[in-house]
Amino acid sequence: MVRIKFRPLPAAALLLSLGAGISLFQTHALAQSSGIDSLSGAYLAGVHAGKARDTDAAAAYISRALQRDPDDPELIARAFMLELGRGSSKRATRLAKRVVNNEKRHRVARLVLALQSFQSDKQSSAREHLEHAAYTPIGQLTSALLIGWSWA
Q1: Is 38 helix (H, G, I), strand (E, B) or coil?
Q2: If you placed Cys at 54, which of 35, 48, 49, 73 could pair as Cys (CB 3.0 to 4.6 Å)?
Q3: DSSP letter assigned to residue 90
Q4: Can you tell me the distance from the alpha carbon of 125 to that of 96, in angstroms, rounded to the nearest whole number?
Q5: Is 3 exposed, middle or buried (CB count within 10 Å of its CB: 0-12, 13-18, 19+)?
Q6: Which tens digits make up the pLDDT trace of 23-61?
Q7: From CA 127, how far away is CA 117, in angstroms rounded?
Q8: How does DSSP classify residue 36?
C-alpha cells in the first residue's frame, strides 16, 4: 500500500493561487451578468475589481456606476483615484475638478490640478491649489516646497 504524505504548506499555496485566479475570473464574470447594468452592480464589481488589483476593470465599472449617479461625491472621488492610478491624466484632471467642488481640501486632487496649472503656465492658479492642499504637516511641507519652486 502506498502512503501519500499530506503537506499543508504546498496545499495552502495551491489553494491560495487557485483562489486568486477564481477571484479574477469572478470579476470578469460579473461584467457579463445582467446585474452590472445597475448602479449597485457596477459599484460592487468596481470595488471587487479594485480589491483584486485590476485597476482597469475597477475604473471601467466605477465609471459605469458614475454614469448612473453622476453627482455622488464618493463615486467621483473613487473614479478620480482609479483614473489617476491607471495613468489616465486627462480623465483624472476632469474628475479632480469635480472632486474639489465636493471636498475643497482633497490633497491629491489639488496636486493634480496644480500640476495641470503648472503645465498651462498658470503659476498663480497652481499656488492656489497648493495652498488648499496644505492643511497637515506633510501637506504644508510639500506645498511650501512646490510654491517656492513656482516662484523660480
Answers
A1: coil
A2: 49
A3: H
A4: 14
A5: exposed
A6: 545 545 555 554 667 999 999 999 999 999 999 999 999
A7: 9
A8: G
